[in-house]
Amino acid sequence: MTLAIIVHGGAKTISEDKVGANNAGCTAAAEAGWAVLTNGGTAAEAVEAAIRVLEADQTFNASLGATLNTEGEVELDAAIMEGASLGWGAIAAAQGVRHPISVARKIMDEKPRLLVARGAERFAADNGAEMCKKEDLIADEQWEEWKEEQEVLDRPNTVGCVALDANGVLAAGTSTGGTTNQQAGRVGDTALVGCGLYADNQLGACSTTGDGESIIPVVLAKTAIDFLSGDRHPDEAAQKAIKTLKSKVAGEAGCIILDRQGRVGWAYNSSHMACAYITTGQDEVAVFTKKEVPALSH
After folding, report:
1. H helix or E strand, kind and range, residue 35
2. Cα separation of 58 and 86, whole Å?
3. Which one of the listed residues 158, 176, 179, 190 is annotated catalytic?
4. Three-state SS for 126?
5. What is the pLDDT of residues 245-294, one digit of tens each?
6. How would you class 134 by CB atoms within 10 Å of its CB: exposed for 0-12, middle for 13-18, buried for 19 or more?
């Protein structure tokens, strides 16, 4: 049975001095998920393990290091979906939660639903999630940029992961701090099934990243998965999905896809996209901040 995992650290602009950190973070995340898969763990466990690594890394816009809203606070969204049962769980606009992806997974395992703000925080605390003071998730770099109203050049973005386990089950997950200076209470695509993520064992699984207000109306993750029909390669499906978005709305986005055979695909129309993957037969993680082919520009 083919095992596969792919992670992304966001479709964004990556300045040269941040390439190493993006590569290292995505590699570490992919390796964490891969260790779960090779030890017989489930796709959902692998996705959670990988995204927890990204959430703990200030390089990425998820939990510690997340962007700040208009109030100078971190609000977090995350979701996970499993492709055998179409089970899912999500939280949005939550504060003081160290690992939103783990809370989303607890929700999925209990009863699929989307919990927001105080309700999400209460569920997290009641179910033994790692909590902290909301200020503890504010990274120095984000605080300086927010305080000085600097133009954010190295724009961080949503992280995500897709995995295929030994039982042929696919899972997808996403986690984000949203957009810089977003209105308090704003929720983007990350927590929305079909937009920020989708998993269906019949076809494949997808995690997206980018401008939520552009991703939502084209239901990007589900659109990408639908393009897998007819045994289309995930790379082509990913490119078609991003082209569809570009033809209908303005905005930057990217997506990563695995099909049920464990084939890998990814595409984006931003300057860069941090990405890493490993599948059965590879000796080590392949990691990129740019695709070998040029990014889609139209």
Report:
1. helix 19-38
2. 31
3. 158
4. helix
5. 999 999 999 999 999 999 999 999 999 999 999 999 999 999 999 987 54
6. middle
CA-CA distances (angstroms) from residue 77 to 4, 250, 258?
25, 23, 23
Please tell me whether residue 101 adopts helix, strand or coil conformation: helix
CA–CA distance, 222 with 209 (Å, rounded to integer): 13
Helices 43-55 & 19-38 angle (0-180, nearest 10): 150
Q: Percent helix, strand and coil across the chain, each rounded to 5? A: 30, 25, 40
The count of C-alpha atoms lying within 13 angstroms of the C-alpha of 215, restricted to the half-sphere facing its C-beta, is: 32
* Digit-coded pLDDT (tens) for 179-238: 989 999 999 999 999 999 999 999 999 999 999 999 999 999 999 999 999 999 999 999
The residue with tokens 């939660």 is: 97
* DSSP H or E stretch at residue 199: strand 197-200
Degrees, nearest 5: CA angle 206-207-211: 130
Segment holding 80, helix H or strand E: strand 76-82
> Which sign, positive or negative, has the C-alpha torsion 231, 46, 115, 66?
negative
Other CB atoms within 10 A of residue 128 CB: 10
Is 38 one of the annotated active-site residues of the chain? Answer: no
Do the strands 204-210 and 197-200 form a parallel or antiparallel pair, or are they unpaired? antiparallel
